[in-house]
Amino acid sequence: MHRIFSSRWIISGVSLTIGVGIGAALTASDRSRSRTISDELLHRVPIIPVPIVDAASEIAPYQQGQLTPSRSTAAMKYGFPSLSNIKSREGYVISYDPRNRSAAWVIEQLSSETLTGTSDRRFCEFREDDSVHVYHRATNADYKGSGFDRGHLAAAANHKWSQKAMDDTFYLSNVAPQNPHLNQNAWKNLETYCRTLAKQNQNVFVCSGPLYLPRQEPDGKMYVKYQVIGKNHVAVPTHFFKVVVLEKQRGGVELRPYVMPNMPVDEKIPLERFLVPIESIERASGLLFVPNILRNTSNLQAITAKA
Question: Could you give the number of structural domains in the chain?
Fold first, then answer.
């Protein structure tokens, strides 16, 4: 792997463009252009070169054009960023984190087909995931009076194609405590944008999950601190990520990684300001995305925020 000074990383002949956004390392001039975002919002995610070790290998690889009984099989196309506690639902695949009582990540495939149908969220209810041991699951009572929304990772509106698929998004294993302002505004805008991308591209694969990032305290040391809610101590993420893989109509794959802090975010801030280098998410989450994607494509472009 060779680094050149045009803000690109060359990996096995594939160019990855990196830039500046929430979670990226900001220069002084970058920060001066970002004064509309509070300093607290601009917690930096450590950046390292893309790891050369392999990510988790694929399970039941998806073949182009294959007919499957569920969309979750198609979501496996680019493999998984980790292999712990994998659960398959009608429209998504989840890696469950029993310690934090929520998902480590959720992968779903979006296309124009998944976004149309007669499914109605009015018929859905948030419910416990009975496939998770009672010691390690969240309940609706944990969220009551907490001040946090039950924020979807795989969004309900992404799965209008099937009422069961939409129902499955209401498992509490697919949600995390989310600031209401973020959930109902900027994060919702990002979800809507992903659906727009699905209508403009052949396929869109979305991986969403929580982050628990360190911050510097007054004593000068770095600590990872996060709130827990309810009697089951459901962890409140400090940030959320969404890694979007676009399969272009004319071939090629584009990667768009986003990070948003779990706090009120001005919905007028352009979504591109939340783009980060993919390696910053990999480092912060303990997950790996790029190796599996590179294994499945010879034409990958990574888009991040421009300085």
Answer: 1
Measured distance CA(294)–CA(301) in Å, rounded? 10
Are the CB atoms for 117 and 128 separated by under 8 Å?
no
The pTM of the full predicted model, rounded to 2 decimals, is 0.78
Q: For residues 250 and 163, is the Cβ–Cβ distance under 8 A?
A: no
Give a yes or no: residue 38 inside a domain. no
pLDDT of residue 300: 76
pLDDT of residue 28: 35
* Catalytic residue (one of 2, 43, 136, 152): 152
Domain assignment present for 2 = no
What pLDDT, in 10s, does the model give residues 48-96?
223 222 333 233 333 444 334 456 777 888 889 999 999 999 999 999 9
Residue 159 is among the residues annotated as catalytic for this protein? no
Q: Cα–Cα distances in Å, from 4 out to 7, 29, 197, 214, 225? A: 7, 21, 31, 29, 36
Domain housing 181: 48-302
Q: Which helix (H) or strand (E) holds 143?
A: helix 140-143
SS3 assignment for 171-204: EHHHEEEECHHHHHCHHHHHHHHHHHHHHHCCEE
**Does 3 fall in a domain?**
no
